[in-house]
Predict the 3D structure of the following.
Amino acid sequence: EADIYQTPRYLVIGTGKKITLECSQTMGHDKMYWYQQDPGMELHLIHYSYGVNSTEKGDLSSESTVSRIRTEHFPLTLESARPSHTSQYLCASSDTGLGYTFGSGTRLTVV
Amino acid sequence: QKEVEQNSGPLSVPEGAIASLNCTYSDRGSQSFFWYRQYSGKSPELIMFIYSNGDKEDGRFTAQLNKASQYVSLLIRDSQPSDSATYLCACVEGRGSTLGRLYFGRGTQLTVWP
C-alpha cells in the first residue's frame, strides 16, 4: 500500500488556470522531491525540499512553485497553466540512504 | 554535475534468457546505488539497492557494483514478458548540501519476447 499519495491522478485543464498538485506522505520523511517526466523520456528534477520551510529549485527550470509548511505535505502550484506544462508530475520522498518512494503521479494535460 | 549513464536500448531478449543492464556514474563519493523499474505510464518502483562492492542477489535479480570502475549492473535471470519495462539506475549524492539526493540515468528499455 502506497505511503505517498498524489492527487489528482489525471487533470485536464484550460490554459491560464491556476492549479495545485497535491503530494502527501505518511512516512515522516524530511526529504521530498518533484519530478517532471514526458512519455518515454527521462526524469527531470524540478523542486526539492529537505524539511519544513526549505525548498530549492531542481535541475530543470520550471514555472511552478512549491511550499513545505508541514513535513508530510509538499504541494506544487502552477499559477497560469500552459500547453507546454502538459506532462506527468511525480512526487517522491526519502529517508537518507534508503532511496526514494514515488507516488503514483499526476498526468496533467493543458488544453 | 553528477552524471549517470545508461544505454537507452531498447534491449530485447527472449523469455528465459538473462538480461544485463549496465550503468556508469561520475560521482566517486556515491556510496549507494539503486535500480528502479518503471512500467509505461506508471511511476518508478524500487527493485534493488546495493552499497558494497560485489554482487547482491534477490530472487531473479542480481545487482553488481564495482566502485573502482564506477560501474553498476543489474542482471535479470529467467526473464519474463512481465519484466518488460524501463529500468532506471540511480546513485545517491555522496556529500555536500544535496546529501541524499538521487541522480537518475535516462533508463534502459527492456523488452522480453515470448
User: Anything to note?
Assistant: The two ends of chain A are 33 Å apart (CA to CA). Chain A has a mean pLDDT of 93. DSSP finds no helices and eleven strands in chain A. The interface with chain B takes residues 31, 33, 39-40, 42-43, 45, 48, 50, 90, 94, 96-105, 107 of chain A (CB under 8 Å).
